[in-house]
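Dear colleagues,

I hope this message finds you well. In preparation for our joint manuscript, I am sending the Phosphate transport system substrate-binding protein (Chelatococcus composti) sequence together with its predicted structure, so that both groups work from identical material. I would be grateful if you could confirm receipt.
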Amino acid sequence: MRTLVGLICAAIVGFSLPTTAKAEELRIVGTGDGVDILRAVGELYTQRNPQTTIVVPPSVGSGGGILAVGSGQEILGRIARPLTDTEKAQGIVAVPFLKLPSAFYVHRSAGISSLTGAQLRAIFAGNIENWREVGGNDLRVRVVRREDRDSTLLVLRATMPGWDNLVITDKSKTAFTTQEGIESVRDVEGAIGWGPYSTSLPEQIVVLSVDGLFPTDEGYPSANTIELIYNEKTVTPEARDFLAFISSPEAREIVRRMGGVPTAK
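The corresponding structure tokens are as follows:
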């Protein structure tokens, strides 16, 4: 009898104890461009709003983010290319977040830190095959490129002189995500590639100046716009709150500090 009474009392006490609500995850899927910056902004938002945990998974590309949001699989996405009219007609809305300079970078073994625009074009066209030809070490150039629809490549073709019709050498490796491109250049001696700039890049590889201008210098010609997307049919109050937060002074300061230009308003 005493045992039964004890169990009943324990159950009553257990039911009366306050419970801690589990934080809801808000995933933002899509491009690998600007992912470090978005994660930093997300961490600050989560600190201020512990009921919502912002999660920024590895890249599935802008197209993957659009597909996930358009199908209702995810609430928020991240893209590095403009939405098409067809995508807009599905109810997908884009919110400007930041601009990122388009950077060229090399493995440290190349022995260089600056190239001219003409030298870059010659390297990616396959006309320069050894780093000593541009003042670097006696080492074979290994080109890492992105797929033709890569957002940074599209920006380079639109903004960098001579890139609009540049035919990239077929003696190259194709990387299919931003992270893969960075890792390929970081891990392969003599490698060169391109991608969105971030302040963490120089910790891993050498970011090049082009015609004397570093990607963060005024006058550097090429930058890509990163936007967050949602679907009018599925967007939640928590998602709208985070989209409002990215235009806050604190979020804009993180963007600047990490090498981007805030565009959220």
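For the figure legend, we might mention the following. The chain has a mean pLDDT of 91. The CA atoms of residues 200 and 258 lie 8 Å apart.

With kind regards,
E.M.
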